[in-house]
């Protein structure tokens, strides 16, 4: 059994796609264990994306992630980390296939609607980062 962390990013919330995104996870019969709306502070955004701090798009990414409310979800199930990543679609907007969340809703590689943990290691750290209050 695995757990993974999903963030509906500020553009997803602003564009009122929250319900449709959650529907994708429910359609796939994944279990939503916990969920809340909140914000990502600049300090936490920089920590969350520390692996990208040398990239030219880093300042834009931090500004975007802190630009409005987000929704945090904790999903649980067998192979849920990889299953959720499949539902999200590729990071590069040009590679995000139709039928995926990014493929269907995003037209930008930065403003790409959703985040999900990409490994067991990052899921553990990210769940601790955003669900430590539980
Ligand atoms: N990102 C970007 N430009 C890029 C690559 C990534 O703006 O060329 C942004 C995008 O919002 C992405 C986030 O940085 O979701 C984190 O990138 P990562 O490579 O970790 O991809 P992810 O795990 O989100 O698919």
TrEMBL record:
<dbReference type="Pfam" id="PF00334">
    <property type="entry name" value="NDK"/>
</dbReference>
<feature type="binding site">
    <location>
        <position position="57"/>
    </location>
    <ligand>
        <name>ATP</name>
    </ligand>
</feature>
<keyword id="KW-0418">Kinase</keyword>
<protein>
    <recommendedName>
        <fullName>Nucleoside diphosphate kinase</fullName>
        <ecNumber>2.7.4.6</ecNumber>
    </recommendedName>
</protein>
<keyword id="KW-0547">Nucleotide-binding</keyword>
<dbReference type="GO" id="GO:0006228">
    <property type="term" value="P:UTP biosynthetic process"/>
</dbReference>
<keyword id="KW-0479">Metal-binding</keyword>
<comment type="similarity">
    <text>Belongs to the NDK family.</text>
</comment>
<feature type="binding site">
    <location>
        <position position="85"/>
    </location>
    <ligand>
        <name>ATP</name>
    </ligand>
</feature>
<keyword id="KW-0067">ATP-binding</keyword>
<feature type="domain" description="Nucleoside diphosphate kinase-like">
    <location>
        <begin position="1"/>
        <end position="134"/>
    </location>
</feature>
<feature type="binding site">
    <location>
        <position position="112"/>
    </location>
    <ligand>
        <name>ATP</name>
    </ligand>
</feature>
<feature type="binding site">
    <location>
        <position position="91"/>
    </location>
    <ligand>
        <name>ATP</name>
    </ligand>
</feature>
<dbReference type="GO" id="GO:0006241">
    <property type="term" value="P:CTP biosynthetic process"/>
</dbReference>
<keyword id="KW-0808">Transferase</keyword>
<dbReference type="InterPro" id="IPR023005">
    <property type="entry name" value="Nucleoside_diP_kinase_AS"/>
</dbReference>
<dbReference type="InterPro" id="IPR001564">
    <property type="entry name" value="Nucleoside_diP_kinase"/>
</dbReference>
<feature type="binding site">
    <location>
        <position position="102"/>
    </location>
    <ligand>
        <name>ATP</name>
    </ligand>
</feature>
<feature type="binding site">
    <location>
        <position position="9"/>
    </location>
    <ligand>
        <name>ATP</name>
    </ligand>
</feature>
<dbReference type="GO" id="GO:0006183">
    <property type="term" value="P:GTP biosynthetic process"/>
</dbReference>
<keyword id="KW-0460">Magnesium</keyword>
<keyword id="KW-0546">Nucleotide metabolism</keyword>
<dbReference type="GO" id="GO:0046872">
    <property type="term" value="F:metal ion binding"/>
</dbReference>
<dbReference type="GO" id="GO:0005524">
    <property type="term" value="F:ATP binding"/>
</dbReference>
<feature type="active site" description="Pros-phosphohistidine intermediate">
    <location>
        <position position="115"/>
    </location>
</feature>
<dbReference type="InterPro" id="IPR036850">
    <property type="entry name" value="NDK-like_dom_sf"/>
</dbReference>
<dbReference type="GO" id="GO:0004550">
    <property type="term" value="F:nucleoside diphosphate kinase activity"/>
</dbReference>
<dbReference type="InterPro" id="IPR034907">
    <property type="entry name" value="NDK-like_dom"/>
</dbReference>
């Amino acid at each position: 059994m695995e757990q993974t962390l999903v963030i509906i990013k500020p553009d997803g919330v602003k564009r009122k796609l929250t319900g449709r995104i959650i529907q994708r996870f429910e359609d796939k019969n994944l279990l939503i264990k916990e969920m809340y709306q909140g914000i990502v502070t600049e300090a936490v955004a920089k920590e969350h994306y520390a692996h990208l701090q040398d990239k030219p798009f880093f300042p834009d990414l931090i500004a975007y992630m802190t630009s409005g409310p987000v929704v945090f979800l904790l999903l649980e199930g067998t192979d849920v980390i990889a299953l959720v990543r499949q539902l999200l679609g590729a990071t590069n907007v040009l590679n995000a296939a139709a039928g995926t969340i990014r493929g269907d809703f995003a037209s930008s590689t930065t403003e790409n609607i959703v985040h999900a943990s990409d490994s067991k290691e990052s899921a553990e750290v990210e769940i601790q980062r955003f669900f430590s209050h539980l």
